[in-house]
């Protein structure tokens, strides 16, 4: 039990931490940095568990006695979810321990700044060790319980086969193994990849996507699968993002999965939802894979602009909208809800500031299309800076 002197200040520190998104982000970053497998999961999936576990853990240190059983429901659920997602238990525990260490560091730094007595902080550290031991036991229990449940079903075997198909460097599946899951050795399949990581949401979305021969499961924490046909209606989960690759034989599915993974990240950065084809995201995905070149191009073309200046950002955003709308003043003005003359004025000011004209001149070694691409890529990269 935390000593009475300093209890009020310590309680205030813990309550503030539980409500501070920056603390959650630091704990998530620590867990991802210390475990490669955990880092493969989307940050939102890590954040989902950290928020609940952090709040329960901080509350445990300002109550008398040992932490109560309900505090560990989130820990057991974390273990179960990671088992279903295929994250090895050792990797999961590394992430949990790294996150716990960072949370304690932040708590001690803030408690010291708030004037909490050293003896109270020491007692909290001792309670932290006891709580961590109990928390990890519940994570392990939840993980093993989920493993046993998965092992009792054919679903786990199908998921393991899917992971081999998409992740193994030299995946060779026999005709019998494929037949057990309904796959055909000479069949043509779409690779389907979503951003859904919550097992319950994944089950619901899978029921809609898996309406044709194929298999689905959690691969690197995200609902993924292969299917012979695509759903003909909109996604039931309005917040889900799904990308699909063109049909291909099974021996070409693994490289398509890698392309789909890149396209999913690009689509998420663009704020897209719903179902999208990998080929529709080809340009953005290819450019996103070259961040160093993007930075070099933006600094070369837009070096005269200051990202911290609102007017400069307004000019850059206007030019980007102009390019996105076919270099049409009327369409750009409609999109930005301003008069076409405002667009003309901003483009003129932009050209004056960067010392270059947007009216590209086609020469033998450089086409107008490529010049436009360079401006578009530079502007998008520059606008992402703060």
Would you write up a description of this structure?
The protein has 386 residues and is α+β, with helices and mostly antiparallel strands. The protein has 3 domains: 7-151; 154-279, no CATH class; 291-383, PucR C-terminal helix-turn-helix domain (Arc Repressor Mutant, subunit A, Orthogonal Bundle), CATH 1.10.10.2840. It is 62% helix and 8% strand. It contains 17 helices and 6 strands. The protein has helices at residues 7-18, 21-34, 36-39, 43-60, 73-84, 89-113, 118-151, 154-167, 175-180, 199-209, 253-269, 282-288, 291-301, 310-324, 329-336, 340-354, 368-383, and strands at 188-194, 214-219, 222-227, 241-244, 248-249, 274-277. Strands 1, 2, 3, 4, 5 and 6 form a 6-stranded mixed beta sheet that branches. Helix 2 (21-34) packs across helix 4 and helix 11 (253-269) crosses helix 12. The radius of gyration is 26 Å and the shape is flat. 33% of the residues are buried.
Write the layout of secondary structure elements.
Blueprint (H helix, E strand, L loop, with lengths): L6 H12 L2 H14 L1 H4 L3 H18 L12 H12 L4 H25 L4 H34 L2 H14 L7 H6 L7 E7 L4 H11 L4 E6 L2 E6 L13 E4 L3 E2 L3 H17 L4 E4 L4 H7 L2 H11 L8 H15 L4 H8 L3 H15 L13 H16 L3
Parallel strand pairs: 4-6
Antiparallel strand pairs: 1-3, 1-4, 1-5, 2-3
Helix pairs in contact: 1-4, 2-4, 2-6, 5-7, 6-7, 11-12, 13-17, 14-15, 14-16, 14-17, 15-16
């Amino acid at each position: 039990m935390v000593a009475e002197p300093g209890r009020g200040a310590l309680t205030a520190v813990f309550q503030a931490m539980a409500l501070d998104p920056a603390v959650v982000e630091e704990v998530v970053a620590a867990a991802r940095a210390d475990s490669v497998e955990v880092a493969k999961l989307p940050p939102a999936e890590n954040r989902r568990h950290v928020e609940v576990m952090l709040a329960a853990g901080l509350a445990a240190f300002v109550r008398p006695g040992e932490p109560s059983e309900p505090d560990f429901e989130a820990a057991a659920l974390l273990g179960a979810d990671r088992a279903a997602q295929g994250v090895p238990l050792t990797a999961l525990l590394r992430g949990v321990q790294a996150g716990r260490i960072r949370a304690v560091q932040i708590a001690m730094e803030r408690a010291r700044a708030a004037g909490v007595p050293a003896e109270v902080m020491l007692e909290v550290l001792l309670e932290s060790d006891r709580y961590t031991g109990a928390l990890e036991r519940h994570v392990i229990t939840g993980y093993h319980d989920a493993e046993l449940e998965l092992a009792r079903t054919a679903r786990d075997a199908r998921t393991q086969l899917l992971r081999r198909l998409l992740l193994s460097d030299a995946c060779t599946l026999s005709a019998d193994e494929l037949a057990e899951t309904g796959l055909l050795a000479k069949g043509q399949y779409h690779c389907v990849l979503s951003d859904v990581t919550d097992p319950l949401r994944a089950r619901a979305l899978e029921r809609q996507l898996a309406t044709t021969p194929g298999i689905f499961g959690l691969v690197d924490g995200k609902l993924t699968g292969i299917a012979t046909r695509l759903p003909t209606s909109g996604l039931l989960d309005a917040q889900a993002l799904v990308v699909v690759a063109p049909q291909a034989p099974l021996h070409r599915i693994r490289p398509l999965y890698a392309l789909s993974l890149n396209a999913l990240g690009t689509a998420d950065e663009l704020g897209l939802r719903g179902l999208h084809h990998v080929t529709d995201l080809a340009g953005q995905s290819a450019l996103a894979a070259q961040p160093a070149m993007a930075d070099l191009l933006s600094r070369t073309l837009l070096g005269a602009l200051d990202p911290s200046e609102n007017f400069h950002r307004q000019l850059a955003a206007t030019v980007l909208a102009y390019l996105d709308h076919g270099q049409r003043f009327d369409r750009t003005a409609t999109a930005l809800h301003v008069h076409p003359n405002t667009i003309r004025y901003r483009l003129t000011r932009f050209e004056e500031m960067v010392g270059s004209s947007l009216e590209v001149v086609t020469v033998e070694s450089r086409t107008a299309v490529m010049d436009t691409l360079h401006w578009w890529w530079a502007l998008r990269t520059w606008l992402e800076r703060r």
